[in-house]
Amino acid sequence: MAEGAKAEQLAKKQREVGVAEFFARNKHLLGFDNARKALLTTVKEAVDNSLDACEEADILPEISVEIIEMSENRFRIVVEDNGPGIVKKQVGRIFAKLLYGSKFHSRKQQRGQQGIGISAAVMYAQLTTGRPAKILTRTGEKSPANYMELTIDTSRNEPKVTVEEEKPWEREHGTRIELDIEASYQKGPQSVDEYLKQTAVTNPHATIIYVNPRAEQYVFARASEVLPKKAQEVRPHPYGIEIGELIKMLDETEHKSLSAFLQESFSRVSAQVSKEICENARMPPATDPKGIHREGAETLIKAIRETKIMAPPTDCLSPIGAELLEKGLKKEVQAEFYTSTSRDPVVVRGNPLQVEVALAFGGAQEKESAAKIMRFANRVPLLYQQGACGITQAITATNWKAYGIAQSGSSIPSGPLTIAVHVASVWVPFTSESKEALADDDDIVKEVKLALQEAGRTLNKYVKKKFKAHRALERANLFERYIPEVANSLARLTGEDEKRIVESLRAMTHKEDIMANIGKLQADNEEYDEEWARIGKDDDDGDEGPEGHHDPDEE
What we know:
14 strands, Heat Shock Protein 90, 4 domains, about 20% strand, six-stranded mixed β-sheet, eight-stranded mixed β-sheet
């Protein structure tokens, strides 16, 4: 057979691969690696959608999650919210069309990014049980509740509605989704239970009611009546632009001059800044952008880097805030001391990014076990790939011994400590489409580490004061042990009443005061400085504290 004929035969076998077809064969890329993880991913995508919808409509979220075990390895997941509901014609596209949504091109902090999540869960249900997704939604009291059953046509990446009707529903507005999937349920650090608990930490404005497959109900009540500040959409910052993206923007722009293009396409580019960029690039401001090709784009990129441009605006972020993050942690993690900090926003690859940290110390956690790490990106918990995450790298790179916490080399610190780290960004650099870990980016690791150090210094003061208080108690106990013998000897030498001597010596230990102050120190971390003022007077002997323990601020 001629060479040309072989090529023709091979060409006939080639055809386009649909988006839905690709993900149907590679569902592990979307977080459906195994049966246990599939359950978590399905719940996560539905809950994230509900939180987003409620916040966009200025509604305090009330979300119910129910998981029903239908048979062995088959579960029904029902997620219902009090959000604004969904317009009827959009239901199919939102739930049964991959890579469809408003978030991909929107430059602001948000939970989702690609428009894949909930439609991927619908596809997984369809692949594993053959059953359609059941959607019930209502947009207002005067509107009917629309019910649909739908699947995804994977060859065309289009919704296929099999049932469409109106149904009575007591909710005035909201959305309910029901999915049957193959999965397995297990409690533990990577379970639905843990995901919802951590979601309650970073979303203290939400109430979540959860019923697990064992019919156990958990209520994560809201700790705040205030909705998060809405993130505002911003234009890209010049410092983060790449040459390929710039060439595309130049080719598609409707502006007739380079100066207008720069001012209208990027944030923080004023008429003066635009003029400086053009001068550095040695291009007239009136240059037609469409006439600038690869070499010209490279010159522009270089000129942008040589021009001093103000950092991008940060109203595109919606941080939790140190106070609310700490309040959320207090609500879900029992401890004796809490502290939190929120760093100022920084620019990473042209995008604003903000890091927040909260620590909880003490409580029921084993002293010898590794500290518990809670990782969050745009308020969403990250439960998998902890070791491959940039947040974890920042934690292990921090010297926790300096803050009175045990640590072996560059490893996760050990002891009764919970570390919550939240990264808020316009575009979070995840390591995969399943959004389970942050990329090992030097700038992000640095910011997380600085936030941990800020919170660590406050923790250090508490640990040091607590150590001193317990040292004072140990000394009091030691002295008390020998009081009977000392009192007996003094009574024989002085002739004084032995009982009176015992009472006097016991009063000298100040043990009751020490015990009371330790209790107050543990009960109210906001008052520990005042409480220690009395404890420290009798025990200010320069003790360094636990081994290797010192205050880095005193260095």
